[in-house]
Structures are given as structure tokens and as C-alpha cells.
Design goal:
Layout: H1 4-17, E1 26-30, E2 35-40, E3 55-60
């Protein structure tokens, strides 16, 4: 399992690969046990693709 910092970076990278997501609109936070919390304005799904993610807490606001 990746280090906390590595998991956050992996989620940010996955968000950047999804053409429906603007990663600049999403803040990625994680805990020491690799639980990811996403906040911002966009759609999510790519966070689950990142290696080492245990859970995703979706606090995003969908706009549009």
C-alpha cells in the first residue's frame, strides 16, 4: 500500500486522466489510513482507480 502522500498524488493523477473532470476544481485530502475526501465542483469516479485508496468520501457539489 502506498504512503499517504503517494495515494493523494495517485488520486490527483487519476482525476487528470478523466476528460469529464476538471482537477483544478477538486481538492483531494486523505488520512493516514488512505481514506480520500474530495471537495469542490465536478464529477468523481476516478478517485477509486488510484492504487491504495481504501474509501472515498464524496463532498463534491455538482454544478452545471
Amino acid at each position: 500500500m502506498g504512503k499517504t502522500k503517494d495515494v493523494r498524488a495517485a488520486v490527483q493523477a487519476e482525476l487528470g486522466f478523466d476528460p469529464l473532470v476538471d482537477p483544478a476544481d477538486i481538492k483531494v485530502m486523505n488520512t493516514e489510513d488512505n481514506v480520500i475526501t474530495l471537495t469542490g465542483h465536478s464529477v468523481v469516479g476516478a478517485a477509486w482507480m488510484a492504487l491504495g485508496v481504501i474509501d472515498v468520501r464524496d463532498e463534491l457539489q455538482v454544478t452545471g
